[in-house]
């Protein structure tokens, strides 16, 4: 199995579904929160848009400090889509350029010089980039449902599409 090709193809499919989900957000609801402890819709959406590029950049070196991830709120849908476009390109370039040996190389997250975890880079891409993106995109679909906005079909029909 060619892991690089598999990841590139998966990323291509998933980013299209992510873009469709982000496009459905009403601009006047970016500051809306389903609960006081939740991220705002604009924070969640911008976080989703940034995940691919920020995480592949994080994995570009074999040892990285735990990042500080500020959760800024998107100001517009154009900003969200622009951020997604930029981060899609960054992630795609990394995914296309890592060879099998680089994907198998151990990657470590450290905190103040202390190693917190070490896994092959491909494992971290799967868990911290892909799965993280899917998790937050799932949250986004719940936000959309709570706002009575049509939820896109992602892995099959949604209650709003293909009725």
UniProtKB/TrEMBL annotation:
Keyword tags: Metal-binding
GO molecular function: metal ion binding
Family: Belongs to the DinB family.
Protein name: DinB family protein
Membrane-crossing residue ranges in chain numbering: none
Pfam families associated with the record: DinB
Lineage: Bacteria, Bacillati, Bacillota, Bacilli, Bacillales
Amino acids binding a divalent metal cation: 47, 132, 136
Biological source species: Halalkalibacter hemicellulosilyticusJCM 9152
